[in-house]
Automatic annotation (TrEMBL):
The lineage of its organism: Bacteria, Pseudomonadati, Bacteroidota, Bacteroidia, Bacteroidales. It comes from Bacteroides xylanisolvens CL03T12C04. InterPro entries: DUF4988. Keywords: Coiled coil, Signal. The keyword Transcription does not apply. Residues 21-48 form a coiled coil. This is DUF4988 domain-containing protein. Residues 1-19 form the signal peptide. Residues 24-206 form the DUF4988 domain. It comes from the Bacteria. Pfam families: DUF4988.
Length: 665
């Protein structure tokens, strides 16, 4: 205890004036023993007080008891473990805590005195029930006892009854050496018998039933169990001698024992779906407790854990309250989109088609807030986008699934995604299914300005996410942004962003690819992040500024060049991790510019691992040869990823690559 040690230091300094060194050493040793005794005694008193509170609860019994030289360790039917200490240290004036026959806390300072009730604002304190409080004791820096009734947040001094005299913890030795918190603690006929100190104190008898238990693991009891909406967790319980059980759970929650063979003692808990009642904070009442009432003959016990829904962001509520929502650097709010067609759609019970919200003549922007993970949101046939379309997963802790059947044509406006799983399984190269977003319907220059994908999962990529159909009448897009997104690739020789042989390259101004995880379970050759193909003469020079920063690429092999463009102003490929595990029989190239130009290039600070051939800065066909120092890159000595979870797209980075790769949670 810091306060007790401060008292020791103060007294030790005062002793410096002593002239007899032997006396000084004796005094210091005695003081050290006194400080140690005080620390032990405060621990014992608080432990005993907590134990008494638990043992005094009606219906409590003991499932296990361990007797030691000066204490008992008791495991109770509610899963808690408490310690009872039977004896005070010598020469300490310590309060002896008890409970009187009416259930009030009492304190005794000397065996010749009568126990008095502990009070808060002049009122006696119950040991249990709704008004029950458990006192916590402390010793201040001057050696006086203090008591708290709010778990140690605030302390007040203990005064001798009828006086203003503080109770000293280091008295003159008047406290008898054999003072005890209990007159006796014995085990008799499968009962723990506590005879408390004090004339009016009751005797407490608690049954010991060692062959009956229903309990959660200790770590489950110590913290609130947080769930995402709709999430299921399993809890393995200790069950002995249980004949019957009854389970209660908060509204919207499901709790039941597994019926799987060998898992009969596993409790399966499922949080409510988004449409059910949500709770963001658990408190000690039955609205947040999952409780199991177990019975065995005449005995019963209750095992409890507290559950809560994680604090969640409701983007629709934020929008309604005028808050900004940022998607790929673009801000939306209800002032900017005051005239938008705003819809809340739920796929909890069935698939939901979004076809009616797309057309070649959209009169106003569309904002879709989607919820429900049991089914998909779909589109059938080719869809045209001719105004701003913004699609947001409503709650940040659930990611709904959008599964288009055919491509979407970018004609005019913006296309923004946030917190969506975009499943591209059906876009496999069939008719009108060779890409997701198709630049095949731009009305005039500058009409379609942005594609932003933010905090999404793009699953089963088989064909390009964006494709420029390469006609002279089609114009490009000002900004393409992909960030904080997982991209699962299941195809070789594919460009995620395929500008192909676009004519109007001057319309492509910025490309931002940041903090993404791009992965495949097996090494995929020829995967490109962005590609402009050879064999065409554009009508305008490329002015693209591209940033590919802090991404993690797993089993992506740029043998067909990660970034290929005709002519641009800048290219940054930095702080990325490229891991090919196991090693594959390929080389890999970062970039190639097809026209001689002088862009600002930074592609020197990345981590690469795997491949039996070289990692290279630029392809031999590139007309930009920076950096001039050479094109071979040193592989990292050890794997930058320590754990590979291809199913969920989670890759644990090694400690020595901090600052590199994606940090998606």
């Amino acid at each position: 205890m810091k306060k007790v040690w401060s008292m020791f230091m103060l007294l030790a300094v005062c002793l410096v004036a002593c002239t007899n060194i032997d006396d000084l050493e004796d005094d210091v040793d005695a003081l050290k023993k006194r400080v140690t005794a005080l620390e032990t005694q405060v621990r014992d008193i608080n432990s005993n007080t907590e134990a008494l509170r638990e043992l005094y609860n009606e219906g409590t019994f003991i499932t296990n008891i361990e007797e030691k030289s000066d204490s008992y360790t008791l495991t109770l039917s509610n899963g808690k473990t408490v310690n009872l200490y039977m004896k005070n240290d010598n020469n300490l004036l310590c309060p002896i805590i008890g409970i009187d026959s009416e259930g009030y806390w009492t304190v005794l300072y000397n065996k010749n005195e009568t126990p008095e009730r502990l009070t808060v604002n002049g009122q006696p304190v119950k040991a249990n029930g709704e008004s029950g409080k458990t006192p916590t004791f402390n010793v201040d820096s001057e050696g006086y006892w203090q008591v708290s009734y709010d778990e140690g947040k605030n302390y007040e001094y203990i005064y001798k009854e009828g006086t203003t005299d503080k109770v000293s913890a280091t008295g003159d030795g008047s406290a008898p050496a054999e003072d005890k918190n209990f007159k006796s603690v014995t085990v008799e006929n499968n009962e723990l018998v506590l005879v408390l100190a004090g004339e009016d104190a009751p005797t407490i008898r608690i049954p010991i039933i060692s062959d009956f238990e229903c309990s959660f693991a200790a770590e489950d009891l110590e913290q609130i169990q947080e769930f995402s909406a709709g999430e299921t967790k399993e809890f393995t319980m200790t069950m002995r001698g249980v004949k019957n059980t009854m389970i209660t759970a908060p509204e919207g929650w499901s709790a039941k024992f597994s019926k799987e063979a060998g898992k009969e003692n596993v409790l399966i808990v499922t949080a409510p779906a988004s449409s059910a009642k949500m709770m963001t904070r658990a408190t000690a009442d039955n609205s947040t407790d999952i409780a199991i009432l177990a019975t065995s003959g005449k005995y019963a016990m209750i095992a409890k854990i507290q559950v809560s829904i994680k604090n969640r962001t409701d983007y629709k509520a934020d929008f309604d309250h005028g808050k900004d929502i940022t998607i790929g650097g673009i801000t939306i709010n209800n002032q900017i989109y005051s005239d938008a067609d705003i819809q809340i759609l739920d796929a909890t019970d069935a698939d939901v088609a979004l076809d009616t919200y797309f057309s070649a003549t959209m009169s106003k922007p569309v904002i879709l807030f989607l919820t429900g993970t049991a089914h998909n949101f779909t589109t059938t046939g080719v869809k045209s986008i001719s105004n701003d379309v913004i699609i947001i997963g409503r709650y940040d802790d659930e990611q709904v699934t959008l599964r288009p059947i055919n491509c979407w044509k970018s004609c005019k406006g913006k296309l923004l995604f946030k917190n969506i799983k975009i499943d591209l399984s059906d876009l496999n190269g069939g008719s009108n299914a060779g890409y997701f977003i198709n630049n095949a319907g731009v009305i005039s220059k500058g009409d379609f300005t942005d594609i932003c994908i933010d905090n999404c999962l793009i699953a089963n990529v088989l064909k390009p996410i964006y494709y420029d159909a390469a006609q002279k009448t089609y114009f490009g897009i000002d900004n393409i942004s992909v960030q904080d997104t997982r991209i699962e690739v299941n195809a070789i020789k594919i460009a995620l962003i395929n500008i192909y042989k676009g004519f109007n390259l001057g319309d492509y101004k910025t490309f931002n690819f940041k903090n993404n995880i791009v992965y495949s379970q097996t090494p995929q050759e020829g995967v490109q992040i962005l590609n402009w193909a050879t064999g065409n003469i554009p009508l305008s020079d490329g002015v693209l500024s591209a940033e590919i920063i802090n991404n993690t690429f797993v089993n992506m092999i740029g043998s067909n060049i990660f970034f290929r463009y005709q002519k641009g102003t800048s290219l940054t490929i930095s702080k990325n991790i490229f891991d090919v595990s196991p090693e594959a029989e390929f080389g890999s190239y970062y970039y190639s510019f097809l026209e001689s130009c002088t862009p600002q290039i930074d592609v020197t600070d990345n981590i690469v691992y795997g491949l039996t051939k070289n990692w290279n800065y630029y392809h031999t066909s590139s007309l930009v040869k920076e950096p001039t120092s050479g094109n071979n890159i040193t592989k990292h000595a050890t794997a930058p990823i320590t754990q590979y979870d291809y199913v969920n797209g989670i890759f644990t980075l090694a400690s020595d690559v901090a600052g590199y790769g994606a940090t998606i949670e």
